[in-house]
Write a structure and sequence with these properties.
Shape: globular
Number of strands: 2
Order of helices and strands: HHEHHHHHHHEHHHHHHHHH
Structural class: mainly alpha
Distance between the termini: 47 Å
Radius of gyration: 26 Å
Number of helices: 18
Strand content: under 5%
Helix content: 55-70%
Length: 481
């Protein structure tokens, strides 16, 4: 048992209350010191470092508004749509809570995408922050599941048919696909059972996992220290420290960065409020117009597309055709041949690549053309599902794909910035094509965009080492403003 700290009788009432609380709950004080007042962060943070705290803010908004929505929402296929209309029309301020939640879902992905891009350009995934990045990618993956399940709950036309399409994709997985799709739906079609289980996961199970990952992400970050735009480490045995052991290039997170983040929060809330009050549907991107029509299993919308934050991956899914698979097979063969014949990679890596290449070609031929025996009935869309899932899973391997001798984009060759810029444009174009009706031109552009997306990551061990790198300073470069 910890010893109680005494305080002067002449102390103020606030000081006495704080001492009383700290004596009985010292863990809270230790957490405050470890993660705020005595957590030293690099002093050269810029606006890119707003998005981590903004993601936390949006998470709180989603939880609070979600609690109020569940008070009136009914997870019943006959009443779900009506309950949402009831919230919008009859519950005092219900329209505001619903729009905060729907806009918050899109805002969550906006700030998460920007937060991940910050890590990409400044090397926030590099040693010693690999685990921080893995927790962050896990958050992104769980967030996608949470958003997908929540997307079904309004039980509008796009909710129903979007869920029908996405859930049916799981049936393309060999051997277990049909049973897995049935397990997810809880029925042979998307219906009341699906709505109930999605509601349960969206409200209880997935948020608990998400909160646990967020806590792990923050703790792991604070254990190794934050990255910065220069990529210079301020913690560790080689870092410069003062007589008290504090980093010379660091400042306490509180009050400096709490005030810094308040500014970012104020700007974010201005934009967030403007969208909620003046354009909550944002032209049909945040809330599709078809979702204001009750779900009708007998009437299929002309064009079914997921909400905007899924569309880059949906575009990749649609890009996979038989012709595209021929191109991917040729690229894979060339890659394996180059690594085996022209590089000094270890024999184990070469053997693994040969096995992967042979397995891929066998599966492609068997699944696409033969349809014999236990492979019969396997749909060609399986490859689209593989590519769509691989587009997310490849992010987990980024710390080991980047072989650049420096972390930050500031000290990389100038043409690296063009590579990152084209990657961003490619991702946006894929997202745009994902909301458009299928077309031959869109298909070809999506195929090129998909190849570039995967090429960006898979060729990173090669291109990230090329060029003339600038010398990284020993200390952080910072100019007060």
């Amino acid at each position: 048992m910890a010893e109680f700290k005494e305080i002067s009788p002449n102390a103020t009432a606030t000081e006495k209350l704080a001492n009383w609380f700290n004596n009985r709950f010292p863990t809270a004080g230790a957490a405050y010191r470890d993660h705020l007042s005595e957590y030293y962060a690099p002093k050269n943070f810029n606006f890119w470092y707003f998005f981590g705290s903004l993601a936390l803010l949006v998470l709180v908004i989603q939880i609070v508004t979600g609690i109020f929505l569940t008070m009136h929402y009914k997870p019943d296929a006959e009443k779900a749509f009506e309950s949402v209309e009831y919230i919008m029309r009859d519950v005092p301020w219900g329209w505001l809570v619903r729009y905060m939640h729907s806009t918050g879902a899109s805002a969550f992905f906006v700030v998460v995408y920007l937060h991940m891009f910050k890590a990409l350009i400044y090397g926030g995934y590099r040693k010693p922050r690999e685990l921080v990045w893995l927790f962050g990618c896990s958050i992104f993956l769980v967030l996608m599941a949470e958003a997908f399940m929540g997307y079904l709950l309004p039980w509008g036309q796009m909710s129903y048919w979007g869920a029908q399409v996405i859930v049916n994709l799981f049936s393309a997985i060999p051997f277990i696909g049909p049973d897995l799709a049935l397990l997810i739906r809880g029925d042979y079609v998307v219906g009341d059972a699906t709505l109930n289980r999605f509601f349960s996961f969206h409200v209880i199970a997935v948020p608990m996992v998400l909160l646990g990952l967020v806590v792990a992400h923050i703790f792991a970050l604070h254990d190794v220290g934050s990255n910065n735009p220069d990529g210079v480490e301020i913690k560790g045995p080689n870092a410069l420290k003062d007589a008290n052991g504090h980093p010379l290039d660091g400042i306490p997170f509180h009050p400096y960065y709490t005030v810094h983040d308040i500014f970012g929060v104020a700007v974010f809330l201005l934009v967030f409020s403007a969208i909620i009050f003046f354009a909550p549907e944002l032209g049909g991107y945040f809330l599709e117009y078809n979702n204001f029509i009750p779900a009708d299993p007998l009437k299929t919308p002309l064009h079914i597309a997921p909400v905007w934050y899924f569309t880059p991956y949906y575009s990749m899914l649609r890009a996979i055709t038989t012709e595209m698979m021929y191109a991917l097979s040729a690229i894979l063969l060339l890659t394996v041949g180059y690594v085996v014949l022209k590089t000094s990679a270890s024999s184990l890596i070469k053997a693994a690549l040969v096995v992967i290449g042979v397995a891929f070609l066998w599966m492609f031929n068997a699944f696409t053309f033969t349809g014999i025996g236990f492979l019969q009935g396997i749909d060609a869309k399986f490859w689209g599902v593989v590519v769509m899932g691989g587009a997310v899973m490849i992010l987990f391997f980024l710390p080991w794909l980047d072989k650049s001798p420096v972390k930050s984009i500031r000290y990389r060759p100038g043409w690296h910035k063009w590579v990152y810029g084209i990657f961003v444009i490619d991702f946006i174009v894929l997202g745009y094509l994902g909301v458009q009706p299928p077309s031959l031109t869109g298909e070809r552009v999506s195929q090129v965009g998909t190849l570039f997306y995967f090429g960006f990551f898979l060729l990173m061990p090669w291109w990230s080492r090329l060029g003339e790198f600038k010398p990284v300073p020993d200390r952080i470069t910072f100019a007060a403003h």
